[in-house]
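Data card: per-record layout.
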Amino acid sequence: MKFKASAFLLFSLSISQLWAQTLIISDDFDKQALEYVSVIAPQFEFIGYSDAKGRVDISSINGADSIIIHFVGYKDLHLSFDSLDSLDFRIEMSAKHLALEEIVVSASRWQENASDVSMKVTGIPQRKIAIQNPQTSADIVGLSGEVYIQKSQQGGGSPMIRGFAANRVLIAVDGIRMNNAIFRSGNLQNIINIDPFSISQAEVIFGPGSTLFGSDAIGGVMNFHTIQPLYSKDTSTFKDANSLIRYSSASNENTAHLDFRMGSKAFASATSFSFSRFGDLEMGSRGPDFYLRNDYIQESFAEDRIIENSNPEKQIGTGYSQYNLMQKIGFKPNEKMDLTYAFQYSGTSDIPRYDRLTQRDENDTLVYARWDYGPQNWMLHSLTANLNKKTSFYDDFRAILAFQRFEESRETRRFRSGIGTVNAEAVNAYSANLDFKKQADAKNEFFYGLEMLYNSIASEASIYRRDPNDSSSIANSTRYPDGSNWLSAGAYLSVKSEIMDNLILHGGLRFNQIVLNADFDSANFLVPVRTINLNTSAITGSAGLNYKLEEDLILTLNLSSGFRAPNIDDIAKVFDSEPGAVLVPNPDLKSEYAYSADIGFRKYFEDAFFFKANAFYTLLENAMVRRDYVFNGQDSLLFQGELSRVQAIQNAASAYVYGFQIGMDINFTSWLTLELKYNWQKGQEELDDGSTSSMRHVAPEFGAAQINFKRAKFEALASLIYNGEIVYNDLAVSERAKENLYTKDALGRPFSSSWITLNLKTGYHVSDHTSIRFGIENITDQRYRPYSSGIAAAGRNFIGSLAVSF
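The structure for this 806-residue chain is written out next.
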């Protein structure tokens, strides 16, 4: 018996000693484990990395006098083994408030230090997302303070980047392109398909990104990285789970989220689920009466009725719901290879398009009883293989095979009309990406790859009777030619070369081939065009310099070109593009090209001050814009019962946009910082008559000032958001006709007014596993609309959430 007791005691002491030589690393504020922290002991030639629970085995460096603990974005620690022993082998690291050192992926499709990149790339880390508590992924990129967000309805969000938006900016998820062949030039809401709770990091490239991402990447690229399966680094099984519930008052939002991960050394899994229900959004009480919702249409089989709104600040017809599901399964057969299968799904309820529901005719009567985007569904299957093995051709290799299905629809019916129309579209999008990285020598690194994309489009349309005794419907002219397809094949090569100790050169080229086929069914299309075929190619490139005058002073210069080839929406759509106008196909449409120059300056003063500025100019040639058109000898035609002027997407002469972006971070103390952002841009496009107009998607000046406080377990963020005005003379000609969007100046002309909001977000970490967050947005209850938006923003909004981890 004594022998057994002694053996048990000896075993326990051995385990205790082994545990004592396992270092555990966490964040000093929220106490969360830090993964991939490097632990370096130079005299032992040792380097180890912490696992998902912040653990790293340091038993092999017992007695080391110098141990360096390093993690990107955190202050380095220099300790000895004995000092770690005195801390019970548990340490906490402090985040840097200001740092040039940041890891980004989007600049080369591989991880690299942001200080080595010549183009402007902004990263939005998960910790910044958490304190802001955004409702959608569109709101997340808006957190950068450098991307402008337009909304036509609550269930939307169309980012504007340097004067470009919609299908001139590219959205990617885990390196997979989301832009498809029916992405339109009008404002898009597809970005909200991405679950904001699944995002671990968001990145924005400013300026053309066509060298790496192909067509559409003219204004910029938004790349979202979602949570990944995590493997255990020993024989134990890694487990973690996170849950959250949230409520916001302005839209009566109710949100619930749950994610959990498990991992062994060879297998890992990550699961995420979110659900949100939003009620009708309430605007502020202080601002133009023009935005008030004084009346709305109540649908009835007997007869539609106009109802007086008892609360004009409530925007009747803005509520919707959405759910998101993600499942990832990882397999790691060895240390050099891993495979990940991912499934993502997003579904919404009907989303009323509020700007159309508030549209009025010449008699000041509401036009539409119903204008809904039908359930918007997005599904993604992907298989990603990563291989880290040095060969003659590559050091790292990644292959991504993906299938996406997009489903969307529109249902419209005019006030007291007995008939309505339904359009439904589905896109099957197949993609294959092969990316390679090769370190040729100590100063030269190459990135190259291939991309293949194929989209097939299904399009249906019908006219239905709104009669309880007769639910029959007939086929109608579809939005797109059913069965049309779009194919893209591209190859790129880029290089990063340290030509001097303090000078890095970036350069790249891409060749792209685009093939499009659209066949019109004469039974459903009253147009003379029967077939449209497009076969075009493009060569784009980039060249950049990153000059480090000092370790903390960087100058950058970047020249790049981008292109956008016509897609199905551009070249083959039949649709009422705006009240009183119908868009028709244009078989002569060609690609548009952008040429951009960007100069940047970054200065970092220890951990006290960080200043960054970029100036840019972009020229757009052969710009695809909507213009009046003569179709089959006619400048107007009867479409869905209304005589409408004919328009088509056409290649205009040129357009340009220029501006600058300034940012400043000031660290007053270790717990109090100030962050400032300011953006200014102007753009002009040439009109048919030779005159010029402001570009439609050039946002007004905008900026933000944020004070961050972080002490003990409490953090707070107070912000001022500023938005300048666009007077009538500076408003794009195409925007002046949208009188239901804009308030009026003293002469009765539409203009976009300026506004300022004050906001406060707070968080308190009750324990290592529980945190609560509370925020007040638009504290002064301003009533305003962001530029080009069809819906007023939220008034005073109280947000509360509870997060629990396991």
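Known properties of this structure: Residues 1-20 have pLDDT under 50 and may be disordered. Helices lie at 2-20, 81-86, 126-132, 137-142, 210-213, 354-357, 568-572, 733-736.

See the next section for split statistics.
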